[in-house]
Recover the amino acids of this structure.
């Protein structure tokens, strides 16, 4: 029975992180953290951005949950930390590899969900400043982006803007 509880902790933490990511993106990255996040919305040179600091910042809660969970005898906190870490890995893959093609490792996208995801994020990046943004989440995509251009696809090397 504890195995089911631990699995539920991982799954719940994973899905709760979508709201946390939306909130952090809208109110922290586009708020008091804009000086760090700004370069992600501007053309830039090189493989790293100041915005990459958020990876470290957002890894801290996962690490703390896991550490205290292990110290507590592998209790629920360990599994919440694992769920947060899995979300972080999914976020990194979706955002950096699929959406921004940062490592030039993505092929042609024809999957309807992934196309909608790229369109929504591209719409978010149309705004170069922090005000008037939309689509702050990562994995939940508004329905209007599924309805746009069903036949189009995004090719290797194309930017996320849509």
């Amino acid at each position: 029975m504890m195995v089911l509880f631990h699995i539920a902790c991982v799954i719940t933490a994973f899905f709760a992180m979508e709201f946390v990511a939306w909130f952090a993106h809208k109110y922290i990255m586009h708020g008091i953290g804009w000086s760090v996040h700004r370069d992600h919305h501007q053309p830039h040179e090189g493989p790293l951005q100041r915005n990459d600091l958020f990876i470290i910042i957002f890894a801290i809660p996962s690490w703390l949950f896991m550490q205290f969970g292990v110290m507590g005898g592998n209790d629920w906190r360990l599994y919440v930390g694992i769920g947060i870490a899995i979300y972080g890995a999914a976020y990194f893959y979706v955002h950096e590899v699929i959406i921004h093609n940062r490592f030039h490792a993505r092929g042609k996208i024809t999957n309807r969900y992934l196309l909608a995801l790229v369109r929504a994020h591209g719409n978010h990046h149309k705004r170069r400043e922090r005000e008037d943004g939309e689509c702050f989440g990562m994995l939940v995509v508004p329905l209007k982006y599924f309805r746009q251009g069903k036949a189009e696809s995004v090719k290797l090397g194309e930017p996320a803007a849509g």
